[in-house]
Amino acid sequence: PHAPYTVSDDTFTRVVDLANELDLPIHLHVHETAHEVSQSLQDHGMRPLARLEKLGVLGPNLIAVHSVHLTEEEIAQLAHHGASVAHCPSSNMKLASGIAPIPRLLEKGVGVGLGTDGAASNNRLDLFTEMREAALLAKVGSGDASALPAARALRMATIDCATALGMADRLGSIESGKFANLSAIDLSTIETQPCFDPVSHLVYCAGREQVSHVWVAGTPVVAEKRLLQKSNNELLAVARVWQNKFGN
Known about the structure:
Blueprint: H1 9-22, E1 26-30, H2 34-44, H3 48-54, E2 62-66, H4 72-81, E3 84-87, H5 89-94, H6 102-107, E4 111-114, H7 127-142, H8 150-157, H9 159-164, E5 182-185, H10 198-204, E6 211-216, E7 219-223, E8 226-227, H11 232-246
Parallel strand pairs: 1-2, 2-3, 3-4
Antiparallel strand pairs: 5-6, 6-7, 7-8
């Protein structure tokens, strides 16, 4: 389901039944904008999270995307039900949605992973950018320069995402028995030197340009910054088609 303001009560009931039957997470945009909240009050007489709780949507399989406009009670609600949050800082800034209360969510024990949202509200789709902006927004939003350290931002981009998806037993960390989903980041270039703290560099300095190799389940898909399954020229040709189709 997309969001509370685009999904009816009957459809939510069906979604909950299917998620329980198939043991799947529910990925839903929640409390992204102040307008969404006020519209829910007008249409349903309650805030979106209250409606979702009433319909049985709130639970450990819920991934609440954005979660920008939350009260303390709603943060406690998410924690009580074991729901996770997908934090999309670039999208929230581009659409002027606001600053999500990530430090408060983490303090209350809510699992927070990082997302990008779609290309329409995030042109770059780069999790390195999301790590950096998540860390910086948490600091400026809370007035605390120690909020969301680099190591926590990296965790939010890896194992915390896997946990939210219910796949932490297979993904999100380098451990025996898990899929070998790996990225190699080259920090030897002039843009990333000198490097005193690799974790800090990954969050505050590096970007997708520094990714040299990628393996998915042990299979190499990027080598020396080049895609292996498809050629760069093939993808550029597809991009040109869409640019010509919509560029005029």
